[in-house]
Amino acid sequence: MLRGLWTLTWIEIKIFLREPLGAFGMIVVPVLVFVGLGRIFGRRIEFPSLAASGFLRVGVPVLASILITLSAVLSLVTIITIYREGGILKRLRATPLRPQTILTAQVLVKLLLTAVTLLLMVVAGKRYYPIGIHVPVFGFTVALLISTWSILSIGFLIASIVPTARFAQPIGAIILYPMIGLSGLFVAVESLPPKLQIVSRILPLTYAVSLLEGIWRGDSWFAHVGDIVALSVAFVVCTALSAKVFRWE
Amino acid sequence: MAQEIRTGNSIIQVSGLRKAYGSTLAVDDVSFEVQNGEIFGLIGPNGAGKTTTMECVEGLRTPDRGTVSVAGLDPRRDVYRLQERVGVQLQQAQLQKRIKVWEAVHLWASLYRTKTADGDRLVEQLGLVEKRNAWFMDLSGGQKQRLFIVLALINDPEVVFLDELTTGLDPQARRAIWELVRGIRERGKTVCLTTHLMEEAERLCDRVAIIEHGRIIDIGAPDALVRRHCPERTVVLSTDDLTAEKHLRAIPRFEAITNKDLRFTIRGSGDNFVTDVIHCLSENRIKVTDFRTVLPNLEDVFLKLTGHSIRD
Questions:
Q1: What is the pTM (predicted TM-score) of this model?
Q2: Which residues of A touch B93 (CB under 8 A)?
């Protein structure tokens, strides 16, 4: 049933790396944000206040990780729309390949690149980040992969509504990036106006932020079962919806 | 008359096919059969419904009505089993811009459960060896089409579907592709193609179905269609003999003559008309300085059947 999945995934990874801009946007930018923000805040604040140091310790790494996730989703939306417009999806479907195999390969590529980017971030952080990092790297990677996996399903929904490949990037960005503002990363969800709180509770990114912050701080996985359930529900709902509305050509 | 001999040996049966997009009826009650081992062409102008018909047969589209059977399989129910046994080349398809030729061949070969053809040999046969490591986006139009033929043949299919195979290619590349398609038939495979080029249909197809506005107007071997619909023959000759016109008018089944500076164009009908003209010339000792016949072709058949040229 998943015949061709590994070959397709491997070829898609190679193709992605051959596109210089795509690789730059997805891998290099989040690492630069991480290192850059860390240095700026780290220098300005000689004796970091509790809040500032909290943001530095947890906020910046989580923000950078969320950026990795969102650029993975944006990249997915762009690639899917380009493939649809060029008839590549249609050509792949005129084989015994199952539609879900085609899409699974794209998800695997993005998850792998997310993990690689995170790894680079940690390595860069070890050298440049002002505050020593002692975090469960493996656990955090798993948390980020769960978050990315869930939010990628929104990518399929966005890819379904984008009219042409030219609009994929801007439309995707307009939908995705404002979610950061409501995710509880900068302003705690509880201190948002009640109506925005409801919106925030619906967005899967909120649960991703909660999960990532918690695991980074060293919380146990049990404390975040709710987040994982919410992310899984988001994945199931978005996947089911996109199975209905997804267009192959 | 190949079709009569092969009857009862059809590999594709289409009956009462209908497909609408919104209020536009793309395919309207289309029925035909494709015989095992032949090159069958769906011909007609752009937008006639050729591609929609073909995609319903390939299982890529769901018809609103009608039945389709390919190698005994229903493209709707058994689409994956069908894909194992057919090869498809789509109109205006692309691959990933930066996929290499060998990667595409390798990927396609990995998708089929059945034994696959030798990819390296196909690449060699289609003249793509030097391009093995080239990116898809760097291939010329002809090279892309040849790669798509490799991909369509990679599973050693029983039926190969080719949609507007040579559109956008220069005449030389087109001829080379025709040779390849004949080669596919020599290997005992059935080819079903669409084209809006009448010359292509005439040179390549054993039988064609003429489609317009989503309907099949007629089906048959190209020369049989020409005989059926365009019995007229035209002879163009030049002569100084002023009595020529009088004699030529007396030929049986003569229809019309025009004279432009002693260059006569004579129209008549029937297979014997040209012989009769030659007879008439020799009997009356009319000296001609030029003589040629103009035979009708599929283009004329199309004009006759639809009242307009296929290029309109």
A1: 0.86
A2: 86-88, 90-91
